[in-house]
């Protein structure tokens, strides 16, 4: 009895698996046939669950790039992995996926991850495997700067296999401080963070730069990221009545809700500034900060860890919309940029090389070389000796009630013009 | 499922008899206000009202947990998702009817509110009955683990149905109750807060009246106490249990509508956290005891606000569970729970 | 293991019978054999179709190493839930403690670099200690109260870790953990990040050791005391069983494997952060115990492995399977359903939920139940949900 049931279960499982194809999903392939080398671009992003709105548009950016740009002599497909487990990004899954990608000899380049905590688990793997990964979105400082970064590169400390096109939170926090101190003119502020890596790092970057500028931090608070009831925090702010509020975190931690409750308690006159975690679309975009904040959107500011004056922003948006029938996400362009970097590197190193392992190392060395720069949809991008992007510009955005969207008003390069 | 008023104590000890419960509530409220005021100063009144409001929402959800547990001793993990689905039902209704903001005409507002509550409560009540019939009935006599796992499975199913069919992120719900503040002398309270608190109290009193004064309520209580004896007395167990699920899920549905009115948002994953806290509230108050669940809900609400007021906001989750552990160490069956000897 | 009948030639019957008694008496031998078989057969199966279509052998072996962590968690939780009947919904707390213990022992955060092999028993010991600490408040609590308190601990521990920055580095976690190192034994030094084989063999050995320590408990005096408490605590206490120590031992012993799992997991991943130890881990371990066959250590281990593989591979492949079927789009009422375009990854947890509900309704004793459990659960499920008055009055005089 037991055996037949078990047998039925096993037989069923085998049948199900038997008809399956392999894990790669079909995607863009490049032009020339016959005599081409088949290679892959790996994608390692959260694709399901609550974080799908972050990962899917970014992956689409990569696919768009591959469909528009070809490299002669190569057929390029995508090996897509998902690091979301039960709807939430999972560091162990990310590391496992990176192992899978590293193990696939055809993968020469990986775009991802999205979350800094996942990157912490992945950097040791790509460093050991010599596989270059380009993150479109990680902003945590400890991934590339300081002792912790070197500890992550344990196997080959001098080899850089992790680069990112987003700049770090110390710069972004400085941008926030610039907005609060100079644009808003608030000499004191109330600072909140959502207890998570990004939010806390951003709030810390803000606090450091803000105090350097001469501002005072009136009070700090850290609502857990699962909070929906911010009424007690908003009421506390009402009591302190600060000239400005800075909130480091992402929309899914509830910042939009927080601002909405501020509006409900009549506090829209207090400006709110945040980072790229709340710069996720117009008021019409579902689930964006502006959409959720509703009436509270007035008097809000955000930053984006990228330059604003990118060449041809409209063309990119139009191409994306044609292919995917929806507006690009906040990180579609960085995903596209990472892919462009890879393809340019491939073009530069591939003449005469057919061995996949050699190609992988050649691509890595070329991308990580600080003397190289790349023309991307984000403008000219290069990487410094730590793997950080040479674009240290932060763009500032203010909410505009007529456009019902973020509107750019300033950009500042924190290498050329740092906060003193 | 009755309140434990101290009755018939030794004559040498003065007792308040019937009044001990309301007096106890009043005293607790005063003490809580003092604690809040100490930390919040001028915002004491606002924070106190915040706590009452969120406590009312937790209480509504906790009631459903405790009713189901009292009658079939099942921790219905899917209950939090019933709450979440209730908020989605109200979202669907309000957006389909075309509302996008506060409704100023009181008659229309009243009408829409009644409609939203009625629809959401009935729909979620039916969903609760269906879940019981399909997933739990077969396992009624099985050891605890089996229906518990099933309940968790059902909660996954509900969460994911919403996730794939409606939205995978936060969606906004029109907040139709207008915002202004009403003043009663020195007390200033926003309309929405007043509405939530009054509604929750009315529903709780109504539930208590139903349970203690109607035939069906008696049937529920007797089934909770001794299922077989109740059957022998002619109670139809299946209908009674189905009714319990209906009422409990309807209350969660009401809480879902309140979520939309008060917060203006919902998401596929709010059910888990809310359900966890509400369940903690039910256990804190003594699981199986509806008054206890209500009290537990308000206690949790106050714990959250108090930890935020004193600057320990990031510890609020630990505070809630820490309080639970402490209460259970000193009173193993919860605040109003039955003495340990009753159940085998 | 009884010898086969006429199928076995006479010259083999004797040795086979002796082998059978040897394995029956010394189950340690069968455990070691089982471990060896697993270590050899599993990677071999990964080379066979259709499995070799989903990934290379290296990928599979890496997945097995990950599955091994959950097997350890499941057999530990089996002691608490399956044997002693204590409903623990926050088991991930001990997993977190095991992992962070290793992080304290072998990272730049504390500056220590104690070898992995020493940290394994240390991690197990620390986890056992916390098992005592977290189990102590629950002693007076009955069934479901116990469940919610353990759930509470499962939530409290990650929150404490998250907010105690000076001691745990908070949300960023502790990075740069040392990997296991064999110092030249078998020609292997540090395990590194790209080769899953040493991790796989290590986790098989750890599991074998855990098995040998745990399986004996089931038939020991302590194990029987657990069963007695599970069935009827009052009666057990009346028979002289010290319920306090028995329960505490269940928590402590159950926590040791999660300490082992935590240390291994931390060493393999190289980083620990508080968000890796949430309720989903506790729940997954619980589901594995229940679905695998509560109380039966072999069943639980097999169940944990199967469920992990289905979760990590099976659901991903389901999409490809359905696409390969090429079912044309059809209309279901006003909605057009196109099976080929469904991204099953989105439905992953829906399917998981359906599987759980289905299993509980159809086979609540789990895939590989212990005989005792099956008797309990079958009787319970088959019992009619309501009595009929006529049945009760049958046989009584009117």
Can you walk me through this structure?
The complex is a heterotrimer of chains A (420), B (344) and C (398). Chain A is of the alpha/beta class. Chain A has helices spanning 2-18, 52-68, 91-103, 116-129, 147-152, 169-183, 197-213, 231-240, 255-264, 289-293, 313-324, 332-349, 356-368, and strands at residues 37-45, 74-82, 84-85, 88-89, 107-111, 132-135, 162-164, 188-193, 216-221, 245-248, 272-274, 300-304, 373-376, 379-382, 393-400, 405-413. Chain A folds into 2 domains: 22-167 and 313-382, Response regulator (Rossmann fold, 3-Layer(aba) Sandwich), CATH 3.40.50.2300; 169-304 and 393-413, Rossmann fold (3-Layer(aba) Sandwich). Chain A has 13 helices and 16 strands. In chain A, the strands form 4 sheets. Chain A has a 7-stranded mixed β-sheet with strand order 9-8-10-11-12-15-16, with helices on both faces. In chain A, strand 15 and strand 16 form a beta hairpin. The relative contact order of chain A is 0.13. With 344 residues, chain B is mainly alpha-helical. Chain B has one domain: ABC transporter involved in vitamin B12 uptake, BtuC, CATH 1.10.3470. In chain B, helix 10 crosses helix 11 (290-309). The two termini of chain B are 18 Å apart. Chain C has 398 residues and is mostly helical. Chain C has 16 helices and 4 strands. Chain C has helices spanning 10-25, 27-45, 57-83, 92-105, 116-135, 143-163, 165-168, 197-219, 221-231, 233-238, 243-269, 279-293, 297-325, 348-362, 371-382, 389-393; strands spanning 174-175, 271-272, 330-332, 335-337. In chain C, the strands form 2 sheets. Chain C has a two-stranded antiparallel ribbon. Chains A and C meet through helix 1, helix 3, helix 4, helix 5 and helix 7 of A and helix 3, helix 6 and helix 13 of C.
